[in-house]
C-alpha cells in the first residue's frame, strides 16, 4: 500500500515538473539566423495573461551600450538592453501568437509567433501580413 502511494506521488510531482518546463517563460539566448552567432539574452515573462520579452544582455561587449536609433515612438534612442521586444502574445494551443516583435537593429515591428521545439529550443517567427512572408530564428534556453 505504501509503495503504491509513493509511486503515485512520484508520478504526480514528475508530471507537475514536466508541465512547468513546457513554457516559453525564462531566459533565451538569441541566435542570428544569418551568421549563426549568439547575439543577446532575452527574458520572456508573463504579465496580465500575455507574453512579453525584454533584452537583458548583449553578447558582443562592443554593442552593450547600443541605442535603438532606428526605433520609433517611445523606443527611439532607448538603450537596447532593457528594451521590450516581444509584446502582447497570447497562448493558442502550443503556440504563442497575436503579438508583435521589435527588431532593434532595423527598428521595425513585425507580427510574431513563438513555438517551443522540445524544452530548450524556441522558434521565433517575425513576419509581415501572413506568416509565409517572414523569417524564423531558433533561440536556446539559458540554464
UniProtKB/TrEMBL annotation:
Where does the DUF2147 domain start and stop, copy by copy?
26-141
Pfam families in alphabetical order:
DUF2147 (PF09917)
Give the InterPro entries listed for this entry.
DUF2147
* Organism domain of life: Bacteria
What does the record list as coiled-coil region(s)? none
Give the protein's recorded name: DUF2147 domain-containing protein
Q: Which organism is it from?
A: Flavobacterium xylosi
Amino acid at each position: 500500500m505504501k509503495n503504491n502511494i509513493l509511486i503515485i506521488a512520484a508520478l504526480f510531482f514528475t508530471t507537475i515538473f514536466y508541465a512547468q518546463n513546457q513554457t516559453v517563460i525564462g531566459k533565451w539566448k538569441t541566435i542570428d539566423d544569418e551568421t549563426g552567432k549568439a547575439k543577446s539574452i532575452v527574458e520572456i515573462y508573463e504579465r496580465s495573461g500575455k507574453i512579453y520579452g525584454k533584452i537583458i544582455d548583449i553578447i558582443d561587449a562592443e554593442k552593450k551600450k547600443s541605442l535603438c536609433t532606428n526605433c520609433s515612438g517611445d523606443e527611439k534612442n532607448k538603450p537596447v538592453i532593457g528594451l521590450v521586444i516581444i509584446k502582447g502574445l497570447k497562448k493558442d494551443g502550443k503556440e504563442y501568437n497575436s503579438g508583435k516583435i521589435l527588431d532593434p537593429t532595423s527598428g521595425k515591428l513585425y507580427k510574431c509567433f513563438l513555438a517551443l521545439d522540445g524544452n530548450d529550443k524556441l522558434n521565433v517567427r517575425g513576419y509581415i501580413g501572413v506568416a509565409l512572408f517572414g523569417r524564423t530564428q531558433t533561440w536556446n534556453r539559458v540554464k
